Amino acid sequence: MMMTYLKLDAVAKRYGSVRALRDATFSVGAGEIVAVLGPNGAGKTTALEIALGLRAADAGTATLFGGSPKSLAMRRRLGATPQLSGFPDALRPREIARAVAAHYPDPADVDETLAAFGLAALANRRVGDLSGGEQRRLAVALAFVGAPDLVVLDEPTTGLDVESRRALWDRIRALSGGRRAVLFTTHYLEEAETSATRVVVIVDGAVRFDGTPASLRERFGVRRISYIGPDGPIDIATGDTDDYVRTLVHSGVAFRDLEIATTSLEDAFVALTESPR
Predict the structure, then answer these.
(1) Beta-carbon contacts of residue 125 (< 8 Å; ≥ 6 apart)
(2) What is the spatial distance between Cα 121 and Cα 49, in angstroms, rounded to a whole number?
(3) Same-domain status, 29 and 153
(4) Core-most of 11, 78, 88, 204, by most CB within 10 Å?
């Protein structure tokens, strides 16, 4: 049976008249890589902040390794990268990583962790001389340097180009699995599709979906059929491609270059977030 590391149970949070979370429930277990998706302002960051013990829920409960997210003992099993991070310009990556590692009982090797994120050659350079992408890689590396059981990453690839995002996720996946779990938010749906074992979709503060990327595509996705008909190109979205093709063939209408495209996670996500409750 998979051990549960983090659980939000019917969590609610309000900022004045704004309901940031409404009875949000989801969990993260050992070895999982869970993506929290949702439109801007959906409540993703609030959910992570409650999970990290940075905010208190107005209602419901949040547990971290079976205890309080505010417990020092529980938080020593946790690593995190916030959506925004900043470092003193004069410090160096190795110095910062050593300071973070010192807060954990059995941290990872600092130099090995920096090397894993492509920072070995930059370990003694002033942080102020690093590029924005290099500083972002450092921020993510710090989430792993304590050898935590659970890593929480809020928009870890913000500001990175496509190749840098892919390279960073290669490193994150290489350091995940086994007992270690990863919980992350992202606006790049391809990251969830290629890396997540589960996705949690939050819309208007409520969890609208919790399952595998494949089940999200199957439940909310549509396929697209394209072909050249008598009057030119045709592009159709449908939930039943087999029925459409049978009807097309039996109609006797001439067509060519028939193609059927499978549903992407982005298509399914858009269909879910735009659908009525």
Answers:
(1) 92, 93
(2) 33
(3) yes
(4) 11
